[in-house]
């Protein structure tokens, strides 16, 4: 038994799939204590879009620490915060016509930003319930957990999870059924038993839920539905944002204007804990300190986040490179599907948030375990852990993508050979 198994709580999870001790990380690579190198297709579950220890961000942080820059200052004004506000506004919000949105710094994790959004929506509208979707994931603190679909996570609550109505996500009942029309009918019927909700909380691409994608059309209809029934639209862009789908926000080219947007994971750019709620100005009805927290706005994260925005988002070249790499990964994945399971495997997702859906979780987990043996860190997602999910750093090189896809190809060959599904299909 190693010290982790001996002294750390059984709640640990990712380490069970990758049971080695990691010592170093750079870009898209991890190194373990034995010196074995791995390509990282998990990347902090989407926290390391700019890779591990990016040299530009690292230098900005080292300089800040060396100059005794403020590390912790509650929510007081600091130069680091000032620089982040200015940079994010100038390079992200203004160019996207979102200059009037305000930034609220919540506690440092994604679930903190979701809690703040749900609380504010209830406060502003005077309504209690929030609509969230099948297979949605929004975090594990009680408010956000109520909005999360996953039964394994919900089971840990120990109290009733209330204040949320679950509705079917885009294509939940196949591509013929309009889930928007279903929701509209439920909300329009005073005897449906569904009270008018304060807000709708939605991921544009469901990260943990298995890379289910909402189309621009569905998102536009959802926005319209929100306006019709006086509900606020909250986009949870914690995983799909910060460039993962090719643009900074996942909804950018859809022509919608969410009332609130949650960001975390890759927002600091460096893997530092950091979360933010973007909100339309008129919704800012908080009283000073009403939603409080000791770690709101992490100054080290302000430094690296500002440096990341400055380095990657000053023009369109980074977004273009994400598009091209996403295409490259998708093509390689299509080839894997054709070779190892044209009738049972398929590619799903958007941008660099894509994966291969397997007939069951056992196959997907076998693929990931084979891949790990060959030096690729990759995880599953989805209701049955059936999707092998690529979340590699967006800065990964083409050569690293090809190497990872060669490994994935071998892993699928091995997993599909042993599976009864292909034998039955073949
Ligand atoms: C990861 C995630 C969260 C929760 O973030 P934590 O930092 O784990 O609390 C919320 N929403 C989405 C979409 C996520 O992917």
UniProtKB/TrEMBL annotation:
Keywords: Aminotransferase, Pyridoxal phosphate, Transferase. Its cofactor is pyridoxal 5'-phosphate. The keyword Transferase applies. The keyword Transmembrane does not apply. Pfam families: Aminotran_3. Pathway: Amine and polyamine biosynthesis; ectoine biosynthesis; L-ectoine from L-aspartate 4-semialdehyde: step 1/3. This is Diaminobutyrate--2-oxoglutarate transaminase.
